[in-house]
From TrEMBL:
PANTHER family per record: MEVALONATE KINASE
Protein name in UniProt: Mevalonate kinase
NCBIfam families recorded: mevalon_kin
GO cellular-component term (any): cytosol
Gene Ontology biological process: isopentenyl diphosphate biosynthetic process, mevalonate pathway
InterPro entries: GHMP_kinase_C_dom, GHMP_kinase_C_sf, GHMP_kinase_N_dom, Mev_gal_kin, Ribosomal_Su5_D2-typ_SF, Ribsml_uS5_D2-typ_fold_subgr
Molecular function terms, GO-annotated: ATP binding; mevalonate kinase activity
Ranges where the GHMP kinase C-terminal domain occurs: 218-296
């Protein structure tokens, strides 16, 4: 076993299909490298996890790494690891639907594999990460783990092999805004499940339609049709509101983006706080949307769908 190891992961943005993906519908997610997480391991007398999360967030959540401790325990048993200190450093705002928990599990698993000289396959990585994600999210689809561990946009269907998904867009910029409010993925996923039991027909219909919208947005991307992509985002937001996973702050940011010329806008990730995304046709409109959102949001970014990302 090496004395040291390193692993990294990106944040993620779900473009379409959150929540419905838990029920087997397709979803589209993008790795978001403007925010990242790394894990470094070094030999130690006893197991220890040190973490430095974005702006000290999570300092108020002393049990937030319980899922990672469980994962590490299982990895240590499987790979016969001797004690290590694990140092996690992250610029991903935690509990904002940007994949912080999945990225933590991905980076830690990669760092431990590196220390032990183990070549991880994608399937194996997803299996290990699922241990931590089940504890964090209750019933994860696996999309966060897949999006944060890869380098490319993904078209994800629970339990199916990942499909390569070329982003065919020649232009278009996503403006991402953080409400500054803790997202509640676990509670939101649970409440949608409850809704499914109590108002089965309407909820099943909303979930199926979200699946159709994810397929339609895939077609729009492949056809380089930004207007059509924006329209699917707006329709998705209406359905996500129906599923009770939006909130007032998200609705306000969505409305602000639309007034400034967004082609479409919606929450991203688990909802009930966390982040929203707005689609701009060009740089000028993206800057206008970002400026307006920045007056109300905790943080904003731009994600160029043609390529680069940069923080704003
Ligand atoms: C969370 O980023 C996405 C959800 O669909 C939950 C999941 O798929 O595990 C809300």
């Amino acid at each position: 076993m090496n004395a040291t190891g390193f692993g990294a992961a990106n944040g993620k943005i779900i473009l379409m299909g959150e929540h419905a993906v838990v029920y087997g519908e397709p979803a589209i997610a993008l790795p978001f490298s403007a925010v990242q997480l790394s894990a470094e391991v070094t030999a130690s007398q006893a197991w220890q996890i040190d973490s430095v999360y974005h702006q000290g967030l999570l300092a108020d959540a002393p049990h937030h790494l319980e899922n990672i401790k469980q994962l590490v325990q299982e990895l240590a048993a499987a790979w016969h690891l001797t004690p290590l200190t694990i140092k996690i450093t992250s610029t991903i705002p935690p509990e904002r639907g940007m994949g912080s928990s999945a990225a933590t599990a991905v980076a830690v698993t990669r760092a431990l594999a590196d220390a032990v000289g183990h070549a991880l396959t994608t399937t194996e990585l997803q299996k290990w990460v699922a241990i931590a994600e089940k504890i964090a999210h209750g019933n994860p689809s696996g999309i966060d783990a897949a999006a944060t561990s890869g380098l490319n946009p993904i078209y994800f269907i629970k339990g199916e092999p990942l499909t390569a998904f070329p982003m065919n867009l020649s232009h278009g910029i996503l403006v991402v805004a953080d409400t500054g409010i803790k997202g509640q993925t676990r509670g939101a996923v649970k409440d949608v499940a409850h809704l499914f039991e109590t108002t089965k027909k309407a909820t099943a219909q909303a979930i199926t339609t979200l699946g159709h919208l994810a397929k339609a947005s895939r077609e729009a991307i492949l056809a380089d049709d930004l207007d059509a992509l924006g329209a699917t985002m707006d329709q998705a937001q209406t359905l996500l509101k129906q599923l009770t996973v939006s909130n007032q702050s998200l609705d306000e940011l969505v409305a602000t983006a639309k007034v400034q010329g967004a082609l479409g806008a919606k929450l991203t990730g688990g909802g009930r706080g966390g982040c929203m995304i707005a689609l701009a046709p060009d740089q000028q409109t993206a800057d206008k949307i970002q400026q307006a959102l920045a007056t109300k949001a905790a943080a904003t970014w731009q994600f160029n769908l043609g390529g680069d990302t940069h923080e704003g």
